[in-house]
Write a structure and sequence with these properties.
alpha/beta; 10 strands; 8 helices
């Protein structure tokens, strides 16, 4: 069983060496949508999330909508336990898998095989499982003999195929995504789409941020609209999409 429960969660991100730059802080606030203020000790902070209350249970597919800077990425990072709330409490039960940055941990000087183990370790995959799945990962990536070459010799497409192939071996109970991944050429995209769909179907909970109305309405059972770090609407995808994109 997977479960997400956030109670009055707030996230404050400190901004160092920012005193005396009032114009820059004002422009930053406009650009990010975050609320910039001072703590009691005079430290500049961006209030990325404010008083977020959220409950997600098994078999829910939740879409996050909102303009850039609304707090979608911060919320995903809280759910992925990358950020610890500075206010409130977050209780997250179940294994977590994140496809927010599939290239995180890839070392350009290491070989493709070495990077499979590096990326797998970051994902929390036991080494024995990686060793077991290694032939399938290599085959899926379609890298051939390049798998033994340093990643710096790869094209952009090869790099993405490697990162995608190892990042999608996990089958988490809670799957976090920032947009739907579309990788590689047409042939690889079809394989990638199928594997991604399998991951979503096998997960207990999906939380995906997107600017695509079609994706939210197609994949999600529920949608949240964020503005300035707060959830301003929580309803079915059609209702939230109408509020965000406008009636069609």
């Amino acid at each position: 069983m997977a479960e997400i429960k956030l109670e009055h969660v707030g996230v404050e991100i400190p901004v160092f060496n920012s005193q005396g730059r009032s114009l820059k802080k004002t422009l930053m606030g406009i650009a990010t949508g975050g609320k910039i203020g001072l703590t009691e000790k005079g430290k500049t902070v961006i209030q990325s999330l404010t008083d977020v209350n959220l409950y997600i249970k098994d078999y829910e597919r939740v879409g996050l909508l909102g303009h850039n800077g609304a707090g979608k990425s911060t919320l995903l990072r809280v759910l992925g336990k990358v950020y610890t709330p500075t206010l409130g409490a977050a209780k997250i039960s179940g294994s977590i898998g994140s496809l927010i940055d599939i290239s995180l941990g890839i070392d350009s000087e290491a070989t493709g095989i070495e990077n499979i183990f590096l990326r797998g370790a970051l994902l929390g995959v036991p080494r024995k499982k990686i060793e077991k799945d290694l032939p399938d990962i290599i085959e899926f990536s379609e890298l051939g003999e390049f798998i033994n070459m340093p990643v710096r010799t790869y094209s952009t497409g090869m790099h993405i195929r490697l990162a995608f192939s190892v990042s999608t071996i996990i089958r988490p109970e809670i799957l976090l995504m920032d947009e739907w991944l579309s990788v590689g050429d047409k042939g690889f995209q079809e394989k990638a789409e199928q594997r991604l769909t399998e991951m979503v179907n096998e997960s207990n909970i999906l939380v995906i941020a997107s600017h695509s109305r079609t994706l939210i309405e197609k994949c999600c059972t529920r949608a949240l609209l964020l503005e300035h770090g707060q959830i301003v609407m929580d309803s079915d995808p059609e209702t939230v999409c109408n509020a965000y994109f406008g009636l069609t």
